Request: fold
Amino acid sequence: MEIVDSRNVLQSIVKEFRLQGVSVGFVPTMGALHEGHLSLIRRSNKENEITIVSIFVNPTQFNDQDDYKRYPRIISDDIEKLKSINCDFLFTPSKEEMYPEEDKREFDFGNTDKVMEGAHRPGHFRGVALIVSKLFEIVSPHKAYFGEKDFQQVAVIKHLTKLLDLDIEIVPCPIIREKDGLAMSSRNILLSEDQRKNVSLISKTLFESVNMMKLLNLIETKEWVMRKINENPFLKVEYFEIVDSETLESVIEWTQSQNITGCIAVHVGNIRLIDNIRFYS
Ligand code: AMP
Reply:
């Protein structure tokens, strides 16, 4: 695996590959890699001749500076994992390399960045769009892989590629979970032992809600999920929204003909976790 920290160097490497007709897969990450990330890389390895992974903790997508500072950074472990999985290139730029000057661009994503994460983390998706558009420009991949754990992010990125008229296929990949159902996340390593034991209630409740929806209407199901999680003293639901999977607009009653997803954000002390569940797809 080759490690590159210069955007110009990576850009010319990829240009050469693309001229030779080599297919390029790309997996952008913020590091502290776990099986969720690795599943994206495996998929890219399968579908492309070369795979490029980026690790960059992007400051512009953090609306909370403490969260940015606390975010786990374990690059030497990450490099070992990437080597063992046959990643071809790792791109690890510095902050100065990615933001030599302030990037003032604004984007219009319609409804997709206004609700849920967008509403609770002001500026988050603008930061995501800034960094992903820069990375797409440098890497110019044929395909880019994103996890459905960040359900709303996938919708925003699809919007971004359309907006910028990019010829990049966005490939959404399923959520990878721990044995007890907890969605894997780099932030999970920040949880205390007690917190870790209690957070599995989030996914358990989401799974159970798929059965509850047969007995309850949509609003009741929503309330049931929030009540069940909030009853646990370690957990505080920030939002639980049941939305149309494509437009992310709120849905008020169960409709089998519509793709419907429930998205949740939960505070566990000063750590914030997200997850989601498909009700109809
Ligand atoms: P991050 O490093 O958190 O920015 O994540 C990088 C990519 O990995 C994003 O596309 C995430 O959605 C994806 N990802 C993170 N956790 C998981 C997971 N548990 N299952 C699948 N994909 C994931």
Summary: The first helix runs from residue 7 to 19. The beta strands are 2-4, 24-29, 50-55, 89-91, 143-147, 169-173, 235-244, 260-268, 271-280. The pocket of adenosine monophosphate is lined by residues 29-30, 36-37, 39-40, 146-147, 149-150, 173, 175-176, 183-186 (CB under 6 Å). The two ends are 38 Å apart (CA to CA).
